[in-house]
Amino acid sequence: MKLTLKIWRQSGPEDRGGVVTYPIDGVSEDMSFLEMLDVLNEGLIAEGEEPVAFDSDCREGICGMCGVMINGEAHGPERTTTCQLHMRSFRDGDEIVIEPWRADAFPVIKDLCVDRGAFDRIIQAGGYISANTGSAPDAHATPVPKENADRAFMAAECIGCGACVAACPNASGMLFMGSKITHLGEFPQGQPERDARVMSMTAQHDLEGFGGCTNLGECSRACPKGIPLNVISQMNGDLLRAQRHQA
Amino acid sequence: MRTAVRGRARQVSDGGVRPSSTVLTVATSTIAGRQRPKTGSILLKTVMAVTGLIFVGFILAHMYGNLMIFAGREAFNEYAHHLRELGSPMLPEGGFLWIMRITLLVSLVLHAASAFALWARAGKARTVRYVQRKGQWATFVKRSMRWGGAALLIFVVFHILHFTTNTIQIGGNYDNPADRLLNSFGVWWAVLIYLFAVACLGMHLLHGIWSAGMTLGLNTSLDAAERLRLTAILVAVVVVVGFALPPLAIFLGLIP
Could you list the residue range(s) of the whole structural domain that residue A99 is in? Predict the structure, then answer.
C-alpha cells in the first residue's frame, strides 16, 4: 500500500506545531496502525530525521496508552484502539491525517503524545476504594449480586485512553469519570465513600478544565470499549444524591 | 518489504521555541493558573434540566390553549378570558397569569445564564481545534441547541410584543384574542416566523428532554435510554404538530 500521511509535528509543549506531509510506500494491510508508524519512523531515523513521537504500550488493546485522532475520528474508523486498528481499514493511495487528542486539559507533550495526567488526578480525587490491605478476605465474604457485578465489569472496561474527551465536541471527560464512579458504586465496598467520591471527582474534573457534558453521545460512539452513556447519567444521579445527603 | 520514506515535504510550523528532543514535561501534579469554577458544570446542567422541564409543562398547556381555536372564536375568547380569572376568588384578576409569568421569567433567566456559562466553558476546554474533524451529527445537534436556543430567545421577545403587549400588530383588527390570532396568521410572513420558531422548538425539545433525563439520572440502563429517547421524540412531535396546526389552518382559511 502507498499512503500519504499528514502528521501533526510539535517539538514540545511550547511549540505551535503544524502538519507535515510524509509519503510512505510498502505498507502491508496486515500491519497495525502503530506498526505502520514504526515503519515510518525507521525510515525517518535512517534519514537522520526526528522520528514521530507517539504513545503505545501493550499493543493488544487493553492498556489505554495509544490513541490518536485519525482522519478526524478518535482511534480511526473502527471501534477499537489505535494499536488494534489495521491498515486493511484503509485503501491504497489514501491520505491519512493523524493528530493528537485535542483538549486543553490534555496538553501536547510532543507530536502525537499528550499529557493525560488530568485523568490520574481525577482518580486521585476519589476514584478508589479505601481497603484494608491486610490478609486476603474469604471468598464470598461480601456477596455481590450478579447484575451489579455485570454492570461494574462493563464500566471497569474503561482503559482511560481519553478517546471520549477527544471525540466530545465540548472536550468533556464525563464518560471516563462516569465509568469509574459507576464501577465502584456497584460494589458494597464502594458505598462508604460513594458521596465523597462523586463530589470530589466531579470538582477535580472541572478544575482540570474539561468542558461540561451536553449528552450528545460522541464519547460513547468513539469509546473502544463501547461504554454506554448511562454511566454519565448514573454519575449525575449520584451527584444529586450526594448533594441531598449533604444538605 | 521495501519501504521508502521521502522526507518532509512541507513544514507548516512557524518554528517557535524548540526544546531538545527529550521530553521535559511529564505528568505533573500541579495545574498552574487554573481555578475551580464556583458552580460545577453538572449543577449548571441540573438547573437547565429543571427549568427546561418547567418550560415543557408550560408549552404543553400553551399548545392546548392554542388548539381551542378549532372550537371556534367564542370558545377561544372564553378560554383566554378564563385564564385571567383562573384561581378566582382566591387570586385577584390576572393573579394566576402573573404567577406563571414570574415563574417562567425566573426559569428563562436561569436556563439561559447556565447555557451561556457552559457554552463559554466548552469553548475554553478546546482552544486548539482539530485540523480535520469528521462531520458529526452531534456537532449539528450541539449547534441547533445553542443557536436554535438563541433564536428561541429572540422569538420569545417578538412573541410577547406580538400577542401579549400587542405592540406589534399584524393583519389589522386586534379587538379580541381570536381576531388577533386569525388576522395575524392571514399574513404569510407571520406564519413563516412562527413555523420557524416551532421547528427550532422541536429540535430543542428533541435533544433537551433526552438531556434533562440524562442530567437528572434517569438513564440507568439501555432500556431506560430507549424509553427516554422515545419520550423526547413523542413530546417533540406532539408539540411541533400541535403548534403548527393553528397557524397553518388559519392561513389556509380552514377556520371561519
Answer: 3-109
Cβ contact B180:B174 at 8 Å: yes
By CA distance, what is B116's nearest residue in A? Answer: A212
Chain B residue with Cα closest to A48: B7
Between B24 and B158, where is the model more confident?
B158
- Give A239's pLDDT tier (boundaries 50, 70, 90): very high
Q: Are A3 and A94 in contact (CB under 8 A)?
A: yes
Instruction: Work out the pLDDT band at B114, boundaries 50, 70, 90.
Output: very high
Look up the CATH number of the domain holding residue A61: 3.10.20.30
- B47 within some domain: yes
Q: Is A92 inside any structural domain?
A: yes
Instruction: Domain count for chain A, please give it.
Output: 2
Q: Which cell is A235 given?
A: 454519575
Looking at this predicted complex, what is its ipTM? Answer: 0.90
Which has more confidence, A247 or A77? A77
| CATH classification at residue A160 | 1.10.1060.10
**Which of B18, B142, B224 comes nearest A216 by C-beta?**
B142
Chain A / chain B CB contacts < 8 angstroms:
244
Predicted confidence (pLDDT) at residue B10 exceeds the cutoff of 70: no
Pair B211, A215: CB distance under 8 Å: yes
